[in-house]
């Protein structure tokens, strides 16, 4: 039994290695596109009577009364001919192929051949007056028609007076005139006599109209228009800017406006800018080109006014959406962060958490942890502008960007803090903090905090970086986003968390008091999964999310995905003034958050469907592994459980585990003896000869030996031949009756020594006479004991060679830099592979001999059949067929001939996955690692190493099962929180209706209409999400109940057969590779 380890990391073992033995460069995936999988629809049918309660509790104890409904499911998948597959219990059934039509399969080809010219002719008809043209006006039927409107339906022709009458309420339509030169030429309603009167109802005249001093320009979705406009100058008339706003035109000035932009234009610009990242300058230039693409028409330049209006519009839209119009204090009373679209699936006390959440027991308190990640983005630079000091900041700290006045004050006070020093690897973040060039830049980048689980930007979670990624900046941004939140436990993932966490609380105490965390709050620091392998070995387990309680399957890399959308604005933002840049950043982050919030309907559903499958697979795998270990290692399991629980409870105080032991000695004797088994020297010699024969066969398999190696092999053959003849003489002395047979063999046998027959009791080729002589009870008993020892010894050697192979591969991947070094390592790997094959052959021969000597029996539980897929290190998994085929294709592309291909592929049955990435797809170790051999058949050092390796794999299997269970519980809780937030938000909007008193009736009506509309929308969203999630949530609870109860593997397997309907074309996820091969195969111990 291995010595008990105290205070160590149960996930690390000195003999455990993590390497890439076989490099699989590309995983087979399918991309969501029109040509492959457009959608995987996840429609889950459910009983409409089963409705979710308004405030359901997340505790598992409340699931006992749930009634379960069977699901009727189907998943449409690609019609590219892929076979029906079963993905870890998730059934994927290909739909029957639909009949193919050229018009739908190749629409452009069909259009090009049959329709293109017809389209062109029809378009040319529109250049004239059309085939419906008559000599009279379409409206009055009297006058000659000369005008048509490009924006009205039908392109009908009208006379001058009728076209003006038609557009009394559409003054911004584009009008064309049929000229004497027989073509249409642009004109305007202003030139035709249309006059716009503000401040009065339609048909009423103003007694005191006021005409602007200059031509009034209006920017609309169809161009820039000059209009004849009159303001109302009557007594008690509203201000001119108010008169424009009341008709949906946004004035460019609040004193004497000379231009305006329509609300419709500003809405279109905001969507185009935030979704398509089109800068305001390009958008305005496109309006000019809509009016005139020839460059002959001179338009008034209103670009500066348009840029000004855009900032005002965004500021007002933010205040409108967060309810500032309903608050008596107005926009001036906006609190920091209130203008940001929040994540409704993250815990928010008072909004989506149940009453008494603070009193949840330790086993459930993790459901209310706040998971965040932090990172810096150096593409979001900002150039210093001359007008920065004069630029007004309209929303200081209202949304995502922190209020920069107190922020910069704190940065200045801490400017002389010592430079950050890395005690881990040389992080570029720390290097950049100390060396980032900032000449000509107001900011070298931004720091940001977002929620880990749903990838939404956090309120007050963005700030400029003046000189790289300094701790004072990142501390302030992190603490700023936690203001107003009373969540007790925060899990923050940051790519340099191992360094950032050092002295974090000391640095926090130097911050203003309003930023400091209360004493009862806990912060856990972790490193994102993708970044963790670059850290030192000592960081891997301590900062791994895979081994962190209460985080589910979170990877901590969401910030990187957020940058993919945010970086598209970097070039335009870098040239903006201070206020414009921060406000635009807020707008784009709000747009991202809004789309992510809308997509929670699908994203949470997909997570829950995946969690159901994963929890069944990993729980089954862990149960099988645990039960197999219980037979021979029950005492160790108790020790391991105590160690891992202690490590999880107090991770930060445990010492680091020492690095892996030095590589074991690779050299083994080619004709080794079974130690400690000296019953009969003759039979021992026979077994040694058999092993020498097998080794010599492996030596001769290599046809590329040098002359010296060929000479050595010839000497081995001679030595083996002498040993066989000597053995036969000794055997003839003990069994005189078989002397003639042995002498005849010596005289007539023409085969090589490695293929000569060695007669033993277990030989297959014994004649009845020789069998009666050699298979005596005494000889059979002796050989059984020798064969058992031989099989045990072979397994021990096989384990050692497999561990050595992993170490060599790891060393090669980390240190080999040249072709010559690779060649030397390749030779060493070939030697190890020969030894692995020799050990496998020895074991199989020994087991076959035992089967012939004593037939089937209980001994087969210990000496199981050794298949090719069982020959793998403890941290390796079987290659799937697609990976084997991919490896074969890679060899072919590398120039390996078909004749040499078999040699390369021989023995390639496993791949060692790295422990910190892809843990969810690991499988149960081969049986060779946890079957106890008979007493005396192994040495203590090897037993200790095996136990250490088993402990590592047991801890990892346990962690995978626990993370899968947490993921299921977390996603279900997130769904509950999202629905609760909808209810809270709907109620909040209704409470805003009558907050403002002493307002005009029409303003009161507008306030009530806006609040009621949003409350109605939230109720509809809650009902839609409830319907879509209901059946899958019920199935998830069935799985949890089965895990809590006595449900076996069969019941779990049935529960995992979930077929749902998922939309893969979600916002920000178009053309994301979708791996439909989930690699969930598990080999269970026999």
From TrEMBL:
Residues 189-295 form the CxC2-like cysteine cluster KDZ transposase-associated domain. Residues 1-25 are annotated as: Disordered. Pfam families: CxC2, KDZ. It comes from the Eukaryota. Residues 16-25 have a biased composition (Polar residues). InterPro entries: CxC2_KDZ-assoc, KDZ. This is CxC2-like cysteine cluster KDZ transposase-associated domain-containing protein. It comes from Paramarasmius palmivorus.
């Amino acid at each position: 039994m291995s010595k008990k380890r105290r205070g160590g990391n149960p996930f690390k073992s000195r003999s455990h290695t993590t390497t890439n033995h076989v490099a699989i460069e590309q995983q087979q995936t399918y991309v969501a596109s029109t040509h492959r999988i457009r959608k995987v629809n996840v429609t889950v049918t459910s009983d409409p009577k089963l409705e979710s309660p308004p405030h359901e509790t997340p505790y598992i104890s409340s699931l006992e009364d749930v009634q379960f409904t069977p699901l009727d499911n189907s998943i449409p998948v690609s019609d590219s001919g892929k076979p029906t597959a079963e993905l870890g219990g998730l059934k994927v059934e290909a739909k029957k192929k639909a009949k193919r039509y050229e018009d739908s399969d190749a629409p452009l080809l069909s259009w090009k051949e049959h329709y293109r010219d017809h389209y062109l002719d029809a378009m040319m008809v529109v250049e004239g007056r059309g085939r419906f043209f008559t000599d009279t006006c379409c409206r009055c039927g009297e006058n000659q028609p000369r005008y048509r409107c490009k924006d009205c339906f039908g392109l009908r022709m009208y006379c001058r007076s009728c076209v003006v009458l038609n557009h009394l309420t559409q003054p911004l339509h584009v009008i064309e005139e049929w000229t004497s030169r027989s073509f249409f030429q642009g004109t305007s309603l202003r030139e035709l006599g249309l006059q716009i009167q503000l401040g009065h109802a339609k048909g009423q005249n103003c007694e005191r109209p006021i005409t602007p001093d200059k031509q009034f320009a209006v920017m609309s979705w169809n161009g820039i228009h000059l209009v004849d406009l009159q303001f109302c100058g009557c007594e008690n008339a509203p201000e001119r800017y108010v008169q424009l706003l009341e008709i949906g035109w946004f004035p460019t000035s609040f004193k004497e406006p000379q231009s305006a932009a329509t609300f419709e234009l500003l809405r279109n610009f905001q969507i185009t800018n935030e979704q398509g990242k089109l800068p305001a300058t390009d958008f305005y230039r496109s309006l000019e080109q809509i009016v005139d693409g020839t460059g002959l028409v001179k338009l008034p330049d209103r670009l500066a006014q348009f840029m000004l209006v855009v900032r005002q519009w965004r500021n007002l839209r933010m205040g409108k959406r967060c309810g500032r119009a309903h608050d008596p204090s107005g926009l001036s009373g906006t609190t920091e962060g209130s203008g940001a679209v929040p994540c409704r699936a993250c815990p928010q006390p008072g909004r989506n958490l149940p009453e008494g959440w603070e009193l949840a027991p330790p086993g459930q308190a993790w459901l209310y942890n706040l998971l965040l990640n932090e990172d810096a983005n150096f593409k979001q630079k900002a150039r210093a502008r001359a007008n920065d000091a004069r630029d007004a900041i309209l929303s200081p700290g209202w949304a995502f960007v922190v209020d920069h006045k107190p922020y910069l004050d704190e940065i200045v006070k801490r400017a002389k803090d010592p430079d950050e020093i890395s005690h881990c690897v040389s992080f570029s973040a720390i290097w950049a903090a100390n060396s980032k060039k900032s000449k000509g830049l107001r900011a070298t980048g931004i720091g940001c905090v977002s929620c880990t689980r749903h990838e939404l930007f956090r309120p007050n979670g963005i700030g400029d970086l003046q000189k790289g990624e300094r701790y004072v900046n990142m501390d302030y941004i992190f603490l700023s986003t936690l203001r107003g939140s009373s969540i007790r436990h925060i899990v923050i993932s940051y790519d340099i968390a191992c360094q950032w966490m050092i002295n974090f609380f000391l640095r926090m105490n130097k911050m203003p008091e309003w930023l400091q965390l209360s004493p009862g709050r806990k912060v856990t620091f972790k490193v994102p999964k993708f970044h963790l392998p670059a850290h030192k070995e000592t960081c891997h387990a301590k900062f791994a999310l895979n081994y962190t309680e209460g985080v589910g399957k979170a990877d901590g890399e969401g910030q990187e995905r957020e940058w993919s959308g945010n970086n598209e604005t970097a070039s335009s933002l870098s040239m903006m003034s201070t206020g414009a840049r921060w406000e635009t950043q807020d707008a784009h982050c709000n747009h991202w958050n809004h789309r992510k919030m809308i997509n929670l309907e699908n994203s949470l559903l997909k997570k829950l469907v995946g969690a159901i499958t994963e929890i069944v697979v990993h729980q089954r795998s862990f149960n099988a592994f645990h039960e197999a270990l219980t037979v021979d290692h029950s005492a160790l399991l108790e020790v391991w459980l105590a160690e891992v629980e202690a490590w999880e409870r107090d991770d930060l105080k445990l010492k680091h585990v020492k690095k892996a032991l030095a590589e074991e000695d690779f050299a083994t004797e080619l004709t080794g003896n079974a130690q400690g088994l000296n019953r009969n020297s003759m039979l021992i010699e026979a077994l040694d000869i058999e092993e020498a024969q097998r080794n010599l066969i492996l030596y001769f398999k290599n046809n590329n030996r040098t002359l010296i190696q060929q000479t050595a092999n010839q000497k081995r053959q001679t030595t083996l031949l002498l040993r066989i003849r000597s053995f036969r003489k000794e055997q003839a002395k003990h069994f005189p009756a078989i002397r003639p047979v042995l002498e005849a063999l010596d005289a007539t046998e023409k085969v090589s020594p490695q293929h000569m027959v060695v007669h033993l009791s277990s030989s297959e080729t014994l004649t009845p006479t020789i069998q009666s002589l050699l298979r005596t009870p005494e000889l059979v008993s002796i050989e059984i004991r020798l064969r058992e020892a031989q099989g045990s010894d072979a397994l021990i050697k096989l384990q050692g060679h497999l561990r050595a192979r992993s170490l060599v591969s790891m060393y090669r991947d980390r240190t080999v830099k040249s072709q010559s070094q690779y060649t030397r390592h390749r030779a060493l790997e070939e030697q190890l592979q020969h030894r692995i094959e020799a050990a496998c052959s020895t074991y199989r021969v020994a087991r076959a001999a035992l089967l012939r000597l004593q037939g089937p029996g209980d001994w087969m539980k210990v000496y199981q059949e050794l298949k090719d897929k069982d020959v793998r290190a403890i941290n390796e998994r079987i290659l799937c067929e697609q990976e084997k085929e991919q490896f074969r294709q890679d060899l072919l592309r590398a120039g390996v001939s078909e004749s040499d291909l078999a040699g390369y592929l021989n023995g390639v049955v496993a791949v060692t996955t790295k422990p910190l990435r892809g843990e969810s797809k690991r499988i149960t170790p081969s049986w060779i690692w946890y079957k106890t051999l008979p007493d005396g058949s192994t040495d203590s050092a090897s037993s200790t190493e095996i136990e250490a390796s088993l402990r590592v794999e047991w801890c990892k299997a346990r962690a995978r099962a626990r993370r899968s269970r947490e993921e299921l519980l977390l996603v279900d809780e997130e769904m509950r929180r999202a629905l609760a937030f909808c209810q809270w938000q709907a109620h909040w909007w209704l409470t805003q209706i009558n907050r403002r008193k002493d307002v005009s009736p029409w303003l009161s009506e507008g306030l009530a209409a806006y609040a009621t509309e949003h409350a109605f929308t939230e109720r509809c969203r809650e009902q839609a999400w409830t319907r879509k999630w209901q059946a899958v949530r019920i199935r998830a609870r069935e799985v949890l109940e089965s895990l809590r109860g006595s449900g076996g593997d069969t019941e779990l397997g049935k529960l995992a057969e979930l077929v749902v309907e998922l939309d893969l074309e979600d916002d920000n996820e178009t053309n994301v590779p979708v791996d439909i091969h989930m690699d969930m195969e598990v080999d269970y111990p026999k």
